[in-house]
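User: I'm designing a mutation panel for YbgC/FadM family acyl-CoA thioesterase and want to avoid disrupting the core. Could you give me a predicted structure to guide residue selection? Please restate the sequence first so the numbering is unambiguous.

Assistant: Good idea. Sequence first, for numbering, then the predicted structure tokens:
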Amino acid sequence: MHRHTPIKVRYGETDMMGVVYHANYLLYFEDARIDFLDALGFSYAERIEGAGYMSPIHDIEIHYKAPLRYGEAGVVRTSVAKNLPMRTVYRQQVYRAEDVSEGEAADGIEGDPGTEGTAAASCHEPHLREGATPLVDALVTVCVVERDTFKPVSLRRTFPDLYAKYEDIVEEA
């Protein structure tokens, strides 16, 4: 399953060359991960923060391949690359908006339309244009911690329904 989150580059997000300043992709990725959880029916604000937890970044590997410029529209494509009891690794890629076709799914969810109980159950998959390559490609590793102590907790034990959902949609080989 993938979630496509639209972005529009604002002037203040660019550097003197008119391209997105590299650190601003981290903000796009964070918005896209929240959108991804919302698409699964698992509100970050309500289910994670509301229960007294947070989900900080543990590690990030990012490759910048081509720029996105002021005024351009882009899409962050988010999926689960690895589901571990103590960490989740998301693959997050930025494409130009014209590289993502508007399938029958207006909400940007990709997935198996026959999968019961998923947010993608009634959606058709938006597709990448043939030959489309990501402008930015990242693996973002997050963990879940107790808000008050910052002590890591097991996603599998603390949020078993989310962990099980990730098991169903993970893309690891």
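For picking mutation sites, this is relevant: Strands lie at 2-8, 53-54, 57-64, 73-83, 88-96, 109-110, 136-142, 144-146, 152-153. The domain at 2-99+125-168 is CATH 3.10.129.10 (Thiol Ester Dehydrase; Chain A).
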